[in-house]
Design brief:
It contains 15 helices and no strands. It has 306 residues and is mainly alpha-helical.
């Protein structure tokens, strides 16, 4: 498992390096990168989720899906509670960014391509449940944390987020077994195939603009990254083990949790005028270090949960 995941992570990092080069050679700029981000957010990721749900219905799959959703909710509650205890700072802006960075993972951009490569459509199927919870929590508590409290939250942003729409369509298709003709299925498959290269290129573009060395000198940044990449995934592994939950579903959920800090950390920090440079450092450094941590967590998860 370690070698398989490590190989896939290295492949993803080669794509990230391409994005880095495209930035440095000025082939990509901020405007074109935003366009690519929108394609991934509104088309490629929902298509990948829908593709994984076009399958025969079974009660056991629905049961595992429900357990995965509950696990995602519990995980976010635990992570929020621990972030409030472990990450405190006299600088309120800095504290908010640090806490946000450990709660929310890059489960769409990093996890789905990895799940597809290692666990196939089953991995994406179960990973989508965590992404659905992620979308609900990030557009509610995430806005509450980084914004101006409760008044920053709007139900519209939660309900109409791309991940929720994609998951809802996929879930309806799965439960009702609506037949999807090939003339519709093939475009979905083509769009889903974009969900591996495009997000990695975008990450590489943003990495080229970050200052990694500053992050390595900041103890609080390193502490937050250890919490994000090591502590929280290990809690997930042994939490599933404690309740006797094994198989593809907990492996997929753990993979989502082990992903680096969500790119939305920087977007939210910029929007609400928090410490943007800190958010860029956290996203970039956690992404680089995940090439080591994600295969290790995957091996641990396979040992205890497979």
């Amino acid at each position: 498992m370690f070698q398989t995941v490590f190989t896939q992570v290295v492949i993803l990092f080669i794509l990230i390096f391409i994005g880095f080069i495209l930035n440095k050679t000025k082939i990509l700029d901020e405007k074109s990168t935003k366009g690519i981000t929108d394609i991934v957010l509104y088309l490629a990721t929902p298509a990948t989720i829908i593709k994984s749900f076009i399958r025969d219905f079974s009660p056991s799959l629905l049961k595992n899906l429900s357990v995965g959703f509950i696990a995602g909710v519990v995980a976010h509650i635990i992570f929020i509670a621990l972030s409030l205890v472990l990450l405190r700072s006299r600088d309120a802006s800095r504290q908010k960014v640090l806490q946000f960075s450990v709660i929310f993972s890059n489960c769409g951009y990093m996890s789905i391509p990895l799940l597809q490569a290692v666990l196939g459509d089953d991995g994406v199927f179960y990973g989508a449940t965590y992404i659905a919870v992620f979308q609900i929590v990030i557009w509610s508590y995430g806005l509450f944390l980084m914004g101006d409290g409760v008044k920053s939250i709007t139900p519209k942003k939660v309900i109409f987020s791309p991940g929720i729409i994609g998951f809802s369509i996929a879930f309806i298709i799965f439960v009702t077994q609506i037949p999807i003709p090939s003339i519709i299925r093939e475009p979905i498959n083509y769009m889903a195939s974009l969900n591996t290269p495009l997000p990695m290129i975008v990450i590489g573009y943003h990495l080229a603009n970050s200052n990694i060395l500053n992050g390595l000198k900041d103890i609080r940044v390193l502490f937050a990254i250890i919490i994000k990449l090591c502590l929280f995934p290990v809690i997930a592994v042994f939490g599933f083990r404690l309740f006797g939950i094994t198989g593809t579903m907990p492996l997929a959920i753990t993979t989502c949790i082990s992903a680096p800090t969500a790119a939305l950390c920087t977007m939210f920090a910029s929007k609400f005028e928090r410490d943007t440079s800190l958010s860029v450092t956290l996203v970039s450094l956690s992404t680089l270090l995940s090439v080591i941590s994600m295969p290790l967590i995957a091996s641990l998860a396979e040992k205890f949960l497979n």
